[in-house]
Amino acid sequence: MAVMADFCPGLDIQVVDVDQKRIDAWNNLEAECLPVYEPGLQEVLDRVRGRNLSFSTDVATAIQRADMVFLTVNTPTKHRGHGAGAAADLTFVEQAARQIATSACGSTIVVERSTLPVRTADVLRKILSQGCGNHFEILSNPEFMAEGTAIDDLCNPDRVLVGGACGQAVAELTGIYANWVHPSRIITTNLWSAELAKLTANAFLAQRISSINSIAGLCEASGADVEEVSHAIGSDRRIGSEFLRPGPGFGGSCFRKDILNLIYLADHYGLYEVASYWRAVLELNAWSQRRISQMIVQALFGTLRDKRIAVLGFAFKADTNDTRESPAIAICRDLLHDGATLRIHDPRVSFADMEALLVVDADGVPTAGWFERAESVFSACDDADAVLILTDWAQYRELDWAALASRMRRPAWVFDARRGTNLAEAEAHGLETWQIGRGGPH
Ligand code: UDX
User: Fold this and answer.
1) Which atom of ligand 1 is nearest to the CA of 255?
2) Which residues are CB-neighbours of 248 under 8 A, at least 6 positions away?
3) Averaged confidence pLDDT in the chain
4) Catalytic residue among 105, 155, 219, 254
5) Which residue among 190, 216, 242 closes a domain?
6) Do 371 and 353 form a contact (C-beta atoms < 8 A)?
7) What pLDDT, in 10s, does the model give residues 345-368?
8) pLDDT at 343
9) What's the gap in Å between 433 CA and the centre of ligand 1?
10) Which CATH number goes with the domain that contains 341?
């Protein structure tokens, strides 16, 4: 919304949330205090906050005044009941829709912005139609931004997608985007296509990562090198070069949730083979994580008791403090279960966030071992038996292996799950190395 406010000074945008603490955080004018870390966000906010963008908890008044309401509530995966583990939990969507139905005034366009299961617009329509005589139009306008590059993705989108049945409402929203997006990049569809396109885009991206990770395993076994393979296949323009970087598996708030949604939808329509096809993408992602912890245990002589491991990176990718579905979670839990001592370094993730995810595993079983947050890569490596690189932060590309190796206990290992460091230099200082997707003698 900040980017929209920036490009459209004529719009008056109010962001509302029932959570006072969250709103206070967004209203905090001190630099570096925002609830999310996103490069470029502070600068945009500094321009628009108090000009044509405001944050408040007065949800009812904001809805009452609005011509257009963007629904950006969270849709986590259901944890219990029917569809648990796959279906999206629409509690917050429903609550928001009920609030819109009671507070809206006159004619209101409701825009689905969150990633929602296909046909959520039906749910909205049913609830909104209970409102007292107001007129509602529903549009789907899924966001395709990725964390860490969100501001650039929003300023220069590959495409903007607007789905809806009412030409007038669609024109009003596309008219807003036309302030900064070329018309050729604004795609209009029906509601259901827009909803499904968002899930599909994420599923296709995630599928590519699972595919390349499977090939990384094959490279290690066969003597091939995954970077060469990626480059060779990525040069085929039908395949393209993006999303072919191997790693410890995909994380983030969208991919797993959206694929689960797709699986639920396929099962719902009786398309069981389709469901199991997409389930396999998630299974491969879990394997991508599991195999790393297994390989480390094996390399460190079958046990991690009394072993110290420096873990570099806990966020699900670089340039974010987000840990949702981060591959580091499952990998660190596995290592802790084996009794390891972990010193985890991440430039943006707090100890509290690490602690909340590592004290117990996914089944609620307390982890063994011990962990702490390291202030620097150097302190993480003191007396360590191994260094494990899990996030692609730029600073890990420049590691000083001479200095780090001298702090470690020998024999010592480097496990590079991101292909983000100079392993030849680590080897030159006597470290054993493993790199994802690198086969053959090192
Ligand atoms: C994703 C989609 O890209 C975005 O369009 C959608 O709106 C939300 O979900 P995001 O979750 O922020 O965005 O991150 P993204 O950059 O897509 O990366 C997801 C995961 O895949 C990360 O864990 C990343 O490290 C991993 N990844 C990505 C790879 O392992 N290899 C790649 O080549 C690319």
Assistant:
1) 9
2) 288, 289, 292, 327, 328, 331, 390, 417, 418, 436
3) 94
4) 254
5) 190
6) no
7) 999 999 999 999 999 999 999 999
8) 98
9) 26
10) 3.40.50.720
